[in-house]
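Mods, move this if it's the wrong board.
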Amino acid sequence: MNKKFPEQISPALRELERRTPIRRESREDTRRIGVRRAGAREAQAISRRAALGRLSAGALLAMGLWPGALRAAEAGGGRSFRFIVVNDTHAVSPECGPFLDGLAKQMKKEEADFVLHGGDVTDKGDKPYFDMIQEAFRAVGKPWYPVIGNHDYVTQTDRKPYEEAFPKRINYAFTEGGWQFVALDTCDGLKYEKTEVQPATFQWLEENLKRLDKRKPTVVLTHFPLGADVRMRPANADALLERFLDFNLQAVFCGHYHGFTEKLAKDVPITTNKCCALKRGNHDGTKEKGYFVCDARDGKLTRRFVEYKPLPLVPRAAAA
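Not the wrong board. Structure tokens:
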């Protein structure tokens, strides 16, 4: 082993060394070419640690590495708790009211501590439908944390109804049970494909990630999918993921693509899920609507899909 590095190196670096050949001069070569030339070549060599730092998030994903999670494997994870992740409710018509009422009543039975919403709360960004889903989700009786979706914009630049419904819910972070949750705006206005995460989100990350604890279990929530090769993934998704390479990232939950996908980076799942909308279908052709129920325990996360099976819809006015 190169004496420049200690015998005990992280599993990520050991895996990188195995997969990334690094040229080394043998003792015989060193004697033959002379100490001066050997020193020059050594100065030009890329160390294992430097190579790890230079790889993009995409390259690390392809290699199955996530350095922050590996380094923090023994860090622990606070108390146990449960949360729900739902996405793409697309509230757009009066019939959506009873559909969402039934959804909230079913989610309440999971006895979760809070709900994450992966965006496209509404279908056209109209204020009455933000009001509709807020009224419905009150029945869960727990806090819920949304991110904005492209369908939550009114125009390419106008998202005022969303911001009025959910103040300070564009880019933000919160903690629960010793875990960190980071919710990020990945939208490019109304655009649904060929998008880029906008500079304001990267600026927020630059200013706020340094305030978080890299060793604590961390979950990221976005609307647009970040998993490699998933449809409608932003062009600069890797640049966003790179900001979390040193974090103990345990999961990334995304919406927008209505269908289940899972891309693993080491043990870090980056997922999308089926939508949970009355008026929208799934992109993958499946019929089920539903959500994830997640349990956090000992610094790790387990996840299960729960299908929403609505009862016959009864208009709110008739039920009152």
